[in-house]
């Protein structure tokens, strides 16, 4: 099975076994996954300390945790950018199970990572040629996902002609066009102002409703995690482990602010904040010693 490292379509060599599913289908499964770094002093730093969980097909799994808890390390491993880990990462058996050229995973980073010398359309089509997509399929996919992300009228624009929110939409369209088994979102709205961030959360929910996608969403924002997630995973302070997995049973409204105004939303957000505050407090206590 061929896997790729990022939304740009760089090929990689998988070292994983197929994920066995029981009940709900899973996209991937992590079993006792650990990641240790060695600094200049040669002392080991355990970023991730034995994580085991599954990502279910079609769900949005939000990940929160204290700074330095290993969220970025986890994302890099799932993106195929870091293979120096211990434990097992199992992917679904067939990447090309529906006859489409697709990636194992594609990533949208905090910065839009668009190539400034390419138009929006060319940026979106960029990962498709290495996947074996012909010109007609590249054009069809780029058009479909640019329309889905509200960029139909900007296909020939260059990144510098777009606002920050529009550039992130283009980056999202590029990742979606690769039709990955798993879409990785690494705080994609962190650089946006509060108003634009809410708008982008609304648009992201609309995109997911029209194009069901399996997502791992890394964020520092608890309300964002609950707004977008079907489940929220709270990681412990370093070494990163799973402190808590929360099913999000919140009434979903058409408007983000309507969802956020419900009692259920406030309750689960407060519960998650209490858990996270304990981890942050433990981190600060350790740093003072």
Structure in words:
Strand 10 (231-235) and strand 11 (242-247) form a beta hairpin. The N and C termini lie far apart (48 Å). This protein has helices at residues 71-78, 120-125, 135-148, 164-177, 194-210, 222-228, 256-260, 263-288; strands at 3-4, 11-12, 26-38, 44-56, 60-64, 86-91, 105-108, 182-186, 215-218, 231-235, 242-247. Helix 3 (135-148) packs across helix 4 and helix 6 (222-228) crosses helix 8. The model is unreliable at 1-22 (pLDDT under 50). The strands form three sheets. Strands 7-8-9-5-10-11 form a six-stranded mixed beta sheet, sandwiched between helices. Strands 4-3-6 form a three-stranded antiparallel beta sheet, with helices on one face. Strands 1-2 form a two-stranded antiparallel ribbon. With 289 residues, the protein is an alpha/beta fold. The longest helix has 26 residues, at 263-288.
- The number of helical runs is 8
What share of the residues lie within helices?
Answer: 25-40%
Low-confidence stretches: 1-22
| Biggest sheet character | 6 strands, mixed
Question: Which strands sit side by side, in order, in the main sheet?
Answer: 7-8-9-5-10-11
> How much of the sequence is in beta strands?
15-25%
Global morphology: globular
One letter per element, helices H and strands E, the order comes to EEEEEHEEHHHEHEHEEHH
- Termini separation (Å)? 48 Å
**Rounded mean pLDDT score:** 85
Q: Count of DSSP E strands? A: 11
**Derived structural class:** alpha/beta
C-alpha Rg (nearest Å)? 19 Å
